[in-house]
Amino acid sequence: MSTRAALSPYRILDLTTERGWLAGKILADLGAQVTKVEPPGGDPGRLKPPFAGGQAAPDTGLRWLAYNRGKRSITLDLAQAGGRELFLKLAARADAVLESFNPGQMEAWGLGPAELHAINSRLVLTRITPFGQTGPYADYAASDLILSAIGGAAWLSGELDRAPVRVTAPQYFLHASAEAAAHTAVGLTHAAVTGQGQQMDVSAQSTTVRTLMNAVAFAAEGTLLRREPLGNPERDIPARSLFACADGYVIAFFTFGPGLVGFRSWARAQGDPIPENFEAFSDEELARGQALYADHPGLAATLTTFFEGFIGRRTRRELLDEAMRRHLLISVINNLPDVLEDDQLADRGYFQPVADRRGGVARYPTRWAHLTATPLLDTAAAPTVGEHNEDVWLDEAELGRTALDRAVAEGVV
Amino acid sequence: MSVDVFAGLKVWDASWAAVGPLTARALGDYGATVIHTESSRSIDVLRRAPPFKDGKPGINRSRFWSEYNPSKLGVGVNFASPEGHAVGLRLAAWADVVIESFSPGVMERLGLSYPALRAVNPSLIMVSTSMNGQTGPRRKFSGFGNLLAAMAGFVDLTGWPDRPANTPYGAYTDFIAPRFCSVALIAALDHRRRTGEGQYIDVSQYEASLQFLAPDLLDAEINGHARSRDGNRDPNAAPHGIFPCRDEDGLDRWVAIAVETEAQWAAFVRRIGAPAWAGEARFSTLEARKANEDALEANVAAWTSDQTPTEVMERLQPEVPAAPVRTNLDLLDDPQLRHRGYLQTLDHEEVGAAVYETSPIIASVTQSHPRKAAPAFGADTRAVLADVLGYDPAEIEALIASGAVELSGPPR
Q1: Fold of B240-325
Q2: I need a labelling partner for A159 at 20 to 30 A (CA). Which of A256, A369, B39, B407 fits?
C-alpha cells in the first residue's frame, strides 16, 4: 500500500457479489486497502465463465480476475454466529463496507446498518442492488438484461423489425459499481472530517437511466423515442451512419465541426471525383445543415452515394488519421482484438502485464486515469481464496493461533 | 439529518458537452459552489440540441443542456481576450477544482494550462477529460461518445449477429467516464485535505470506458476469443431474451426474461403453467436449451405475446428475473423510480418548471440532489464578478463593454 495513493488511509471490507466487484477494484486502484470477504470455498462468482484457458477453476474466471485485482482475500461464513462475531471485529476497525446482496440479507445475518453503526459509527456502508433497498421492486430478481430493459436502455437500441437489444457484454451493474465507488469516496471524506458514518443505497436501475443521454428529457417533453438502425445510411439524412471502408467499418458524422465543407476539402485535396451537385454549393451553403437537405431534395442521396465510395476506397487507418488531422468526425468500429492492438492505448501504457496465480502473465486494462500526485496503483492479480487469512486474522484482528484454528475447524473461516 | 458534504468547495467548471459538466454537477449536487463558464463564440453544442422546453428552440431552453448543468452558476466569459484571460486566472485563484473538456491543447493556447493556473493557485486540482487523453498519437482525436462507443467496442457488441452493428443509445461512453472522473476527483480532494497537495488529472474517456469491457478484453488477450454482438442471448443462460407482448395502442411492447440457473428454469416452467413443450428433453438442461434456443425462444414468445409486460413480470417475479422494456415515456411513471424520487422538478427563470434526473444513490447523511435549475447563459455573470471574484462596478462595466464577459448568449 503506497502512501502516494489518494485513498491510502482507508480500509474497506468488500462483501460484494459479482454485481459489485468493480466498486472495490476502483477504490483499490486509488490506494485503499480492500479486503474481499468470501464465503468458505470462495466467492461463487469466481466460477462464472469465461475462464482463462477455458478451464473452470477458482482462479481462472476472467470476470473475477478483471474486477478483483488489487484486493486481499479472507474467508468467513457470515451465516454462522461465530462468523458474524468475527466480521464485527473487522468492521469495528474498517472505514467502509461494500455489499451487493439482496435487500434484507445483511439484516438477516444481524449485520444491518444498525448493528454495524453500533460498533463503528464512522462506517460507510455502501449497498449495491438492482432497485435499491426499499420500494415496490426492491425484492425482484434482476440481471444485466433486466436492468437494460427496465432502465430504458434496451428500448433505444436495435432495429424496428426485431426486438430491442442490450449491449452483449454486461454493463449495468458496472455503472452502479462505478457510481458506488464515487459515493463511497464521498462518505469516506465525510467520515474522516466529522466522524459520522452512513448508508449509501445505490440503485442499478437508476444508474442505468442515467446512461440514456437526453431520453428522459425527451420524455418529459412528451416525445417517444424509437430505436433505429446504425447500419444503413439514411437516404434523406446522411447525418449519422455506419459505412464499410476498405478493411472494415467506420462511423462518420457530417453535421458537426467542419462538416461537409471539410469532407469536400479532403476529397478535393486527394483528387476524388466530386459529384456536380455537391461541388456546386458554396461553403456557406454547405454549412446550413438540415435546411440544406430540405431545400434540395436528392442531395442527401447524392451525398450518401458519394460517401459510400469515398469511405469505401480508404482504410480504417487512413480515415482515422486524416479525419483527426482535419477535425472531422470519423471513428473506426473496433472489435475487442482491435482495441488490444490500438497504438494510442499502447503509447499511454493502458495495458500492463499482470502476473497471475497460475504462473502466467497477461496484459490487463489498467490506468483509467492519470493523476500526477497520486497515480493509480499497479496492483497485483486477484487473490486466491483466503490468501490473506493469516495476515488478517492473526496480525490485524489479533485472533490468536488457537482461536483461528478453532474457527477453521468450525468452518467459520 | 442531512449534510452538504461539499459545502464551501469551489469549483470552476470550464467544460462543455457531457462528461465534464456531469462531473461538475455531481459536486454541485453535493453542495459545492460551481461556476460554469461559457462563451457565445464557442457555445456548447448541447445548448442548441433538442429537446427544447415546450418545443420552442432557444439556447436557454435546451433540456439536453440543462440536464447536465443544474446546481451551477452561469458566467459568460471569453477567455481568448486578454481581459477574459485575466478573469480566468482570478477564477483559478478562487477555485479548489477546475474541470475542463476542450480538445487537448486548447487550454494551453488560451494560457490556462495547468502550470499557468497552478502558478496562481499552488494547491489547485484540475481535471481534463478528453476523448483519447492528453498524450499519445491520437490526443487530438475529437468527437463525442457516439464515436467513442464505436472505437471502444460497444458498437461492435450491440445488435444482431446476422446484421451490421447497432449501438447503445446516444453518446454511450459519455455516461461511463463521469463516474470515473468523479471518483478520481473526490479521491484527489481527500488527498489534498490531508496533505495540501493539488494535482492534475488526465482522464481519457476511451480508457475509462474500456474498464466496462475488462473481462472480455482479457478473454481476447488470454484466450484469443473475440466476443461480438449476439442479440440478447447470453452464453450461460436460456431463455435469455426480450420477447414480444401485446401491442398497446399500436405501440410494440416487450418483456425481458433472463433464466440464469436451473432453479430459475424450474420456477419459470411452474409459473407459466408447465406446458407440454417445457417438459421436452430438448429443454431440460442449460446445454440442451442453448442447443435448441430458436425453438425455445419461439415457445416463450408464444406465451408472452398475448400478455402485457407487467402481467409477465408479475407472473414470474420474484423467482424469475423478468421486467418490462420501458420506453423513455414509461420511465416517468415507473413505480420504483418514483419511490426513490429519481425525478425532480425545478423552476427555471426563463422556461419555468422542468424535470431533472437526480442522484442514483440515496445517502443517509450526505444528500445528493440538484440544488437549482441550470442557469440561463450569463445569468450570474455580474454577481460572480462582483461577489466571488471581487471586481468593482467600474471594472465590471469595462469587462462587459469590451465583450470579455457576457450577460447573455446569442439569440439562437
Answers
A1: formyl-coa transferase, domain 3 (3.30.1540)
A2: A256
